[in-house]
Amino acid sequence: MGAADLRGVVDNGQCRAQCRLGLSRAADLADLLQVPRLSEAVDAPVEASDGSLRDVPDGVRVLLPTAPTTYVEHDRLTVAGVELDWRLTPDGVLHATTLEGVAAGLAWAAGHWSRRFEAAALLEDPSRTGELARDRWFD
Fold first, then answer.
1. Is 2 exposed, middle or buried (0-12, 13-18, 19+ CB in 10 A)?
2. What is the rounded CA–CA span in Å between residue 134 and residue 29?
């Protein structure tokens, strides 16, 4: 697949065949099969309400240090006619409508998809930074 943010477009029936893999494997498989990845095959410009540029909180930046440091918050976000919670554009700008969307987009951008739930918890309650950091000691 290669683009978790475009799942809604795929689920909307605009793509007929799909193979769901992690980002690190998607490029290799696409090359092997000589097919484009979803991010290359779907024209997915962001159609959104006016947005506000927001800073990513410090606790999330510690969790996902390679993620973008800002995101654009929208009331509504549409891509290819489908309403989505988030979209990471090819230029690296994260657009989101929900905290879960911000968390997913940051985790995807950082290459740590499995950390999206932890990022969401930190966005919801930044006071949990220490608790969640201790939980990572044994990762």
1. buried
2. 36
8 A C-beta contact, residue 29 and residue 21 = yes
| Residue whose tokens read 């950082």 | 110
> Helix, strand, or coil here: 58?
helix
pLDDT at 94: 95
Integer Cα distance of 131 and 17 in angstroms: 42
Distance separating alpha carbons of residues 88 and 104, to the nearest angstrom: 10
DSSP state letters, 63-99: HSTTS-SEEEE-S-EEETTEE-SEEE-TTS-EEESSH
Q: Whole-angstrom Cα distance, residue 106 to residue 15?
A: 25
**d(Cα 105, Cα 87) in Å, to the nearest integer?**
7
- Concatenating the DSSP letter of every residue in 50-62 gives --EEEEPPHHHHH
Both tokens of 99, joined, read 């905290």
- Helices (H) and strands (E) counted in the chain, each on its own, are 7, 7
Residue pLDDT, tens place only, 113-131: 999 999 999 999 999 999 9
What is the CB neighbour count within 10 angstroms for residue 57?
15
